[in-house]
Amino acid sequence: MFKEDFKDHLNDVKDEFEKYVDKRIDLLKLHIVEELSRFTAGFAVKMGILYLLFFALMFISIAGAYFLGHILESVTLGFLIIAGFYFLLAWMFYLLRRKVVEKPVIRSFVKLFFPKFEDDDE
Questions:
Q1: Which residues span the membrane (predicted)?
Q2: Which helix (H) or strand (E) holds 77?
Q3: How far is it, in rounded angstroms, from Cα 29 to Cα 35?
């Protein structure tokens, strides 16, 4: 009698544990889907904004090149000055890539996937 009750109790505990593990797995899946959805939506919005800003910057650059060309009486020189400015920007960006790009990207991923560590500075 005791043996059967104990066996039934162990089976109940086993069933409850399996249910618990299944629920935890479902919760983890939901959390992963939520975070991936948030990441994908944020990425799509940022890419759209960057795409539009790229075209705005391109047209402003062309206008600036023509403006400088008009002032200097050489359209070619205007475009060369604008191109030189962008090469200078690219070189500065390359030199500051770790501080400007890598660290903020790593920090963003940590905040995205581990939100409870957002308050930590390090």
A1: 48-69, 75-96
A2: helix 75-95
A3: 10
Q: What is the pLDDT of residues 74-101, one digit of tens each?
A: 999 999 999 999 999 999 989 988 888 8
DSSP-derived letter for residue 73 is T
* Chain CA centroid to CA 41, Å: 10
CA distance 56 to 64: 12
Which residue in the block uniquely carries the two structure tokens 């069933």?
15
State pTM to two decimals: 0.59
Cα dihedral 87, 92, 94, 98, rounded to 10, equals -160
Q: Which two tokens stand for residue 32?
A: 């992963």
Instruction: For residue 86, give both structure tokens.
Output: 């962008």
